[in-house]
Every structure is written in C-alpha cells, then in structure tokens.
Amino acid sequence: MTYTEASMDALRRTGDELADATVATLFERGEVGTFNTLMRYVSTAGAPLPDGLPDVAREYLETTSFPPSWVDWGEMEKARLFFIDNNVHISTALSFASMPACYLVPHVAKLLSATHGLKYPSKRMAETGQFTVLLMQPDAFEAGGRFLPAVQKVRLLHAAIRHHLEREDKWDVATLGTPICQEDMIGGQMFFSLLVLDSLHRLNIHMSTEGAEAYFYAWRVVGAMLGVDQRAVPTSLDEARRFLDLYMIRHMGPSEEGAQLTRQLIDLYEEIVPGTFFDPIVSALIRHLVGDTSADWLQVPRTPWDTVVKAAPHLLGILETIEDRSPLGAWALDRLGHLTTVFELSSLTRGRVMHYAIPEQLKKDYGVPSGVPRSHRWSPPVTSVP
Questions:
Q1: How far apart are CA 376 and CA 362, in angstroms?
Q2: Would you say 165 and 114 are in contact if contact means Cβ atoms under 8 Å apart?
C-alpha cells in the first residue's frame, strides 16, 4: 500500500464508528457509571454478561466478543512462542522505546497528559504490560481467557477519550485531527510491533524472520480488534516501515508534555531498579534505543552509563549464542526472562489487576524454548526516507 500526505490526512479525521456510537449513547443516557460498575465483574471471555447491563453496551460486547474471522492461528502460536523466548527483551523495548516514541509525538503526549495525568505513569505502563501479557497467554482468545474483555474495554476507553476531548472543547480537531484517530491508532500499532522488533535488533537479540513476522501479525490482529481500519493498516513489515517513517516525519518533535512524561517514566523505573547505583542505566537505555536526537527532545539526561549501555548488545549477543546452542541454557534464560517480566509487572501493578473503565471525566487541568528455528536471522526493513 502507498502512504501519502493526503491518505494520512484522511486517517486523521476518522475514529472508530462502532465504539464511538456506543460511548455516545451511554453518556446520553447517563449509563456510564452503571456500565463501569458491572463490567468490573466481567474479566474472562465467555462469562455471562451481568443483568442490568445497558442494552447498547450488551450489543457492543456481543458484536466484539470474537477475533476476526481471518486470523491465522498458526501465526498466532508462533507469535506466542516468540514472546516466551523474548519476553524480558520485549518488555524492555516496550518500556524504553515504544512508550518514549509515543511521547515524541506532541499531540499524543498532550493526550496522554490529559487522560492519565503526568503524576501516574505506573498506571499507563501497568496497563500496557498487562495487556501484552494477556495477549500472549495460550488461552487469550478462548473461553476463560482475559484478553478479549480487556480489548473490548480498551476500545471503549479510547472512544470515551474522543468523546470528552471533542465535546468539552479541549481539543483542536481542525489542527490536531480526531483524538486517537486512525492514523494514531496505526502509529501506536507500529510502536508496539515494528519498533519493538527494531529495538530487539538494536540490542542484538537473535530473531528469526518467521518469529518477527508472527509477532507483527499478532499486533495486526490486536489492531483489528481495537477498531483499526484494515483497509489502511500495513500488512507487511516493509509497509509498516513506510508508514512509520512517514508518520514520524509528519509528527515527531519536542514538547513540554513529552519531556514531563519521559521524566516520570524514568523516575518510575529508577524506583524499580534496586538501590541507586544502577539508576542511570534507565536513562542510558532509553537514549540508546531512541537515539540522541529523540532523547534530547525528551530531555533524557546524559550519564556516564551512556557508554556502558553501548556494550549491552555484545553481552546479550553472547547470551543469545548460548541460548542458541544449549537447550538447558535456553530453558534457564527463558525462565529468568519470565520471572523478570513477572517481577516488573508486579511492581507496576502493586499486585493488583488493572481494570479498564470509561472515564466519566478527564483530568481537570487537561490539561519453554520457542520451537521456532533461528535460521534466517531477521533484519529490519530499510528506512524509506532518503
């Protein structure tokens, strides 16, 4: 697919018709509170919907209660095994590359500041981490799984944010486009898929082409379930590169909100890292993954660890070689990665399950070895920018 300024502009004017209509009706009828209260008891797929649920919400939940008919379950299983094999690296990329990339888009940083507040980054990170872990569970799309209800709620959350910002005159639609528009939703999908793969490559993580493509495919499925227009979404990694290059050229830059969100992200992870000696590694890792120009825009501090972190890919490359050659080493490293991811998510959530709810108002001041062969090492698609 060819992406142009005109086609991207068209995507900026479009939201999610189904979710937007559902949320608008809930607000018109004053049923948001009832919906949120009852939906706290709906956390697994296939569970009976509670009595008293608003009719429009029941219709939405029934309509969106299954994945797209075109899903290739073989690819989804490859993606799950890829995640098991690389979970700690994927968590690192999501935290220190994908989220800062969101903050590099000024209007996205402004929106995140308005909806989650600058003082509570742990909520955003916990929700993102939990969402990814739920996606990669074996029962993610089966009865009893927690992923499908989470997707349904996140889609309505996005619609509620659009509802508030557009109707409370807190968003310049003419200049910024529709809040959480199709362009931004596809951009977010690229941040959580292609940019994660780019970061793993930068860290010298050994990935097969099959695994990388499967991971990207899984996020295509997620995008479809979150209301992304499948006529516009990239269907290959090469298309994804062209879209992401154009998207970032159109929008990336410095902003006060982006710098503040980044500072809060750094502070959050410095609290998780034991002691204080290793604290600077957080800033250094972000700078390594997003590059100096982007890091400067986000006001990521320079530290003596910037040089040390550059050696990380060499160390990780050694560990990856051990994993490739030793089944026992592969098992041990995968287990360590799993425990690290669990520890990180537990620290962010404080041991609680994160509930996705429709906000009734926004912030007042707005303001197991993989089984996938590692032959044919994956290389990122080349940039489309001259």
A1: 48
A2: yes
